[in-house]
Specification:
Rossmann fold; 2 domains; 6-stranded mixed beta sheet; alpha/beta; elongated; Coagulation Factor XIII, Chain A, domain 1; 18 strands
């Protein structure tokens, strides 16, 4: 049967108002602490709100994260992350069961972080933000907005953490030493997270312990399986640095657009002679995460546009 929340308050829910009709599967989305679990328990009649009202059918059932799957007939079924621990075959059977419930007139509230599942089974998605209904609508539209929001949140979080330099291997004769590696975003602030398409920067500091006639300083990005994605150095870019004296320090800035697909990457940095003899080579020294508001396959984000004709 249909369900209606009218100005429901039960922390963190605050004056929550929304309704869903008979025969509908509604996805419930949001960050931890947004009130998803509380909403589903109230819908199932397990909890009572401190204020406001809920109207629903007589037969209501709640399934928690560790509960056995039970798709018996009900007026309302609240599923709180129950499918998260199950394999693809179980999820496929659950999709069929949910469709059967929908056809029987049941209302289903489905809380899940599985975007593919929400797109496949939901008629609508509710996005909860700090205890209120921030956005609702077509699953594809809501999920696209949610991905953009999460990408921005991760980007902001990346500026709050320190980025340790921890190479998996360090080689070289130490005539020069890489003393600092920084990754920065479009606003010029250090960050461990880049957003696909933004202007980014890598800053390197190099201290020379011995005279070096013609040093070459470079960077290399790899993806999570070790594939070289992009590399360049001062020689390739036409910037000559030497001769450099003992005790001299250089600070270099590599600027580029982060046209990468979302994923995890590492940054290698090095100082060496033009013939490749290494002064200081820091293999996979820094970990970087790239986020985006939509899925793209592969490594390079070429930002294609599709037209007819």
């Amino acid at each position: 049967m249909a369900i209606a929340f009218k100005k429901v308050t039960a922390l963190p829910l605050q004056g929550f108002t929304a309704s869903a009709p008979d025969g509908a599967v509604v996805g419930v989305l949001g960050e931890d602490g947004a009130g998803k679990g509380e909403l589903l328990r109230i819908a199932a009649g397990l909890w009572k709100p401190s204020s406001g009202s809920v109207s629903a059918g007589k037969i209501r059932r709640w399934l928690g994260p560790d509960d056995a799957l039970n798709f018996a007939a009900a007026d309302l079924l609240a599923i709180d992350q129950t499918l998260a621990r199950h394999d693809a075959a179980v999820k496929a059977r659950a999709v069929i069961a949910l469709d059967r419930l929908r056809r029987g007139g049941a209302t289903v509230l489905l809380s899940s972080h599985d975007e593919d599942l929400l797109l496949r089974v939901c008629d609508e998605v509710w996005w909860l933000q700090e205890g209120t209904l921030g956005f609702r609508g077509d699953p594809a539209t809501v999920l696209a907005r949610y991905r953009g929001y999460i990408a921005q949140r991760l980007r902001e979080w990346g500026e709050t953490i320190s980025l340790p330099v921890s190479p998996v291997e360090r080689q070289g004769d130490r005539r020069a030493e890489l003393t600092a590696i920084e990754t920065l975003g479009a606003q010029g602030r250090p960050t461990a997270v880049w957003r696909s398409g933004e202007q980014v920067e890598v800053r390197l500091s190099v201290l020379f312990h011995e005279p070096v006639g013609d040093p070459v300083i470079g960077i290399l990005l790899r993806n999570r399986i070790g594939l070289d994605v992009y590399g360049t150095n001062t020689q390739l870019e036409g910037l000559r640095l030497g001769p450099c004296a003992a005790g001299q320090q250089l600070r270099l800035r590599f600027h580029f657009h982060c046209d990468l697909c979302q994923g995890d990457y590492t940054l290698t940095a090095a100082s060496h002679d033009p013939d490749g003899r290494r002064h200081d080579w820091l293999e996979d020294a820094v970990a970087i995460t790239v986020v985006d508001d939509r899925f793209t396959a592969g490594v390079a984000n070429l930002r294609a546009r599709v037209t007819l004709g």
